[in-house]
């Protein structure tokens, strides 16, 4: 669960929307909410309003956590930015190490330390260029991959409390958002599936590397790609 400021807004102005992998999981969360004392009228499972609010929260999160450079015409969502770091660090190190031996070639009166520094800078520049181009491409999600509410079942609770949030988060949701109950302004994200265990971006890179043309088959695994190619 993220570090959140639970005193930011009055509890009666908030609602909570969680998305779970199956109807069974959603129903189980509903039962636990009723055991917590939440009224039946405040719980909506697989309702259109909960789906819409979860979709809006996810899209707003994607926009707010992206990195843009308008002057360079660049916009990186969070997955692309993470991928650039994951790929960029090792690639830059490898390119730098590969170039260093060339520094031992005598070039006039240029000192060895200058040749070493020059080769290191050239190698780092080459590696950085590869990272900027290949990194975001390998980590970005495809445009037609479903959002959380499109692949799961939503549970919307028209109230808020720390205990309620903790209960819904403990059920391992695909994502969980605290939102404005009236839809006027979104709140904060408590949990998302792609942040769990810190392995989401590595798996995304593996999928894209195994089969870069999977736009028409969202949700597939790398093993399935190898089966198709064999």
Give the topology string: H per helix, E per strand. Answer: EHEHEEHHHEHEEHH
CATH classification, class level of the largest domain: Alpha Beta
Strand content: 5-15%
Poorly predicted residue ranges? 1-7, 195-199
- Principal-axes geometry comes out as elongated
Q: Quick check: average pLDDT? A: 78
Q: Class by helix and strand content? A: alpha+beta
Distinct helical segment count? 8
Strand order of the largest sheet: 2-5-1-6-7
CATH topology of the largest domain: Alpha-Beta Plaits
Count of separate structural domains: 2
Please bin the fraction of helical residues.
40-55%
Rg estimate, integer Å:
23 Å
Main sheet overview: 5 strands, antiparallel
- Measured between the Cα atoms of the first and last residue, the distance is 41 Å
> How many strands appear in the DSSP assignment?
7
What's the CATH architecture of the largest domain?
2-Layer Sandwich
Task: Give structural attributes.
2 domains; 15% strand; five-stranded antiparallel beta sheet; 230 residues; 7 strands; elongated; Alpha-Beta Plaits; alpha+beta; two-stranded antiparallel ribbon
Describe the protein in words.
This protein has 230 residues and is α+β, with helices and mostly antiparallel strands. The chain folds into two domains: 11-46 and 151-229, Alpha-Beta Plaits (2-Layer Sandwich), CATH 3.30.70; 78-139, no CATH class. It has eight helices and seven strands; from the N terminus they run βαβαββαααβαββαα. The longest helix has 28 residues, at 112-139. It is elongated, with a radius of gyration of 23 Å. Mean pLDDT is 78; it is low at 1-7 and 195-199.
